[in-house]
Amino acid sequence: MQRAPKEAIMQRPDILLHLDSYPEPTSMEAIDQAVAFGASLDGVLTALAVHIDIRVPRNKVAEYLVGLSRLADEEEGKSLRSCQQLLAHFVTRAKEAGMPVDTLLERANLYLVGEHVAQRARTRDLCIVPVIDRLDGQRSVAEAVIFDSGRPAIVFSPGVADLPKTGLNTVVLAWDGSRCAARAMADAMPVLTKARKVVVFTAVNEKPTAVSGLGEEAVRYLKRHGVAAVAEQRDAERQPIGEVLDRIVVDVGAGMLVMGAYGRSKLREFILGGATEHVLSSPKVPLLLSH
Question: Is the Cα torsion angle 271, 276, 278, 283 positive or negative in sign?
Fold first, then answer.
């Protein structure tokens, strides 16, 4: 039996990028950063633009007074045009970067975009979601990917927590020894293997299981996979864990924070753990979150 050519079996990260089309489209700067980051991972990048479907209830009075269906059609048209413009910019930038890409233009109910993206993310290694601020609709998309897709999400905020354009220098991996942290470490391997250095960080005394020396076993695992990793710990007793994470990220000059996301969904509204809520609301660097 002949073996497949080496090029055919070479593994490259399969990355999905969600482009928001409504009410405000994803910025061109966010696309540029995502393309450059995908290229630095030697990945294959697919841009998913979702054309919104506004389902208007039948109401003769509303139709007569304001033309509700006409207004919905106009907003849907605005979304479709944004999708087309974003995808065109994405393809141009990807060609300039010389990376293999694909595009998806799909339609989903306005209130179910997050679920649609999460479903698409299930067969990808990573899903990148640009988020402007905590009130941005993309925040709900990011949460849907994190908690419903079974795959990791990379969340970044252009101008606030920018994706690195020339590769990752230092990555902080938040490590408390939990199942969630182990899942995040495994899910992040396409990123961790590209980083020059990974700091496995344990906030000692933050929870009963977070004890001194806990990070050494994670360092052993990462080194077995060719990752340059070191362990670091700090006493976090009586300190908000979000602030502790902020400090370590700044102190080591990290370009990304990897951590397990804690939370649960209730009636489509996510109730997040304290650390998860903090880093999503006030990101200092791009986040790779996995549940």
Answer: negative
Residue 107: predicted pLDDT: 96
CA-to-CA distance for 72 and 32, rounded, in angstroms? 31
Q: Do domains 12-156 and 170-290 have the same CATH topology?
A: yes
> For residue 119, how far is the Cα from the chain centroid?
14
Tokens 């903090």 belong to residue: 278
The residues that bridge with 196 in the sheet, in sequence order, are none
Q: Which sign, positive or negative, has the C-alpha torsion 43, 157, 75, 265?
A: positive
Extended beta strands in the chain, E state? 14-19, 44-53, 101-109, 126-130, 153-156, 170-174, 197-204, 229-235, 256-260, 263-266, 269-272, 287-290
pLDDT tens per residue, range 212-244 = 999 999 999 999 999 999 999 999 888 889 999
| 145 SS3 class | helix
Which CATH topology does 12-156 take? Rossmann fold (3.40.50)
Give the pair of three-digit tokens for residue 237: 């007793």
Quick: pLDDT tens for 148-186: 999 999 999 999 999 998 889 999 999 999 999 999 999
Q: Which amino acid is at 170?
A: T
Superfamily of domain 170-290: HUPs (3.40.50.620)
Instruction: Locate the domains of the chain by residue range.
Output: 12-156, 170-290
Q: Residue 238 has which token pair?
A: 């009586």
Q: What is the mean pLDDT of the chain?
A: 89
Q: Say if CB 48 and CB 17 are below 8 A apart.
A: yes
